[in-house]
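Posted in: Structural Biology > Protein-Ligand Complexes

Title: Requesting predicted complex, cytidine-5'-triphosphate in pocket

I'd be grateful if someone could produce the 3D structure tokens for the following input. Sequence and ligand are given below.
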Amino acid sequence: MFVRGRQILLGIGGGISAYKSCELVRRLQDNGFVVSVVPTQSSLNFVGASTWAALSGRKVYTDLWSDVEDVPHIALAQNCSAIVIAPTTADLLSRLAQGRADDLLTNIVLASTKPKILVPAMHPEMWSNPATISNVNILRQRGFLVIEPDHGRMTGDDVGVGRYPEVARIIDEINQHLLRNADLLGKKILITAGGTRENIDPVRFIGNRSSGKQGFALAYAAAKRGAQVHLIAANTQLPVIDGITTTFVETADEMDTVVKAEFPFSDALIMSAAVSDFKVAQSSDHKLHKQEIQPIDIVLNPDIVAGVGMMKQKGQIVVGFAAETSIELQKLQSAGRDKLLAKGLDLIYVNDVSDGKVFGSDQTTGMLIAKSGTVIDIPIISKDTLSEILLDQLLVELG
Ligand code: CTP
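-- Reply #1 --
Done. Output follows.
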């Protein structure tokens, strides 16, 4: 089951309490988290990579120089909803406070904008050392959540503050921290994806090249940030996302009906589907044979997003997409702004689809234009990253 905001990257520092994180992985999974483990080289002296692979059921990355072609430190940094490091050693605290990037884990932390939660565990003298205290203060000022270690017996006979906390407390603190960072919590977002098909006869249709990847990426990103998402998918081949309500439609008329029924209960509509502007006036109920072929009469489909733009109430946001082939930025911007105004939108993403870019690709480029005047140039980035940028702007527009 997909649980909103619950993909954890678990870093393991090189301390004896690394073995306690085996239990942490299990309890995180019980709580609906999907866990990917990144152990530091020194932690492998305590718990080996195969233990983490078996417990997490996922590939374990241990160094910066494997699978380089996938740029794993960037992918791992972007594809989680939070980073937890347990145990965090004194050395890791120091390296993180300095912003160093001398192994895979510190590279990931530096490259990630996601919430970061540290679970320090070390000998009491190390924990109370002024150098450690200063490193913890620096990290807290930068927004890291640093969980206080427990008081108790150490690995040897010493007693003091520095023990790896009870797993239940760690999970409690992670849950609370993620809840605070779920900035779309309580928002209902309606998202359309894919491309409509208009029947000519039972076997032929007028369609388009939209894959639905952008709409699915948006749905996933919004759900991860806590939103309640209803996805309306037209003719996509993508796997459904557990935990996201998905309605499948085929034609523009079907999409129009579902969007209009759902929009009054939504805070925002993101209309990323490619809707056919027209349909066949009279589609045939039987397969047309060669002898019957005649010119096809077409009629306009409803403009779904423009209709919603007219019915929206104060506080509701409507986001449209446009596909343009103009290579001049100025023309892209004016075409986008015209469409935004004509359709009563609050935000529009103008896709630059010149030279066959974008369709079916995992990447996109273009321009995000807000009614309020903000214009954001989008270089070639992944559709996942665009989703985050668009949702950030949607939050601004929602106020
Ligand atoms: N749209 C819609 N209903 C339609 C056609 C389009 O809701 N019948 C929405 C699309 O989902 C998208 C935006 O309107 O959000 C795009 O508008 P459109 O005018 O179709 O732009 P382009 O696809 O760029 O096409 P054109 O420039 O030819 O108008």
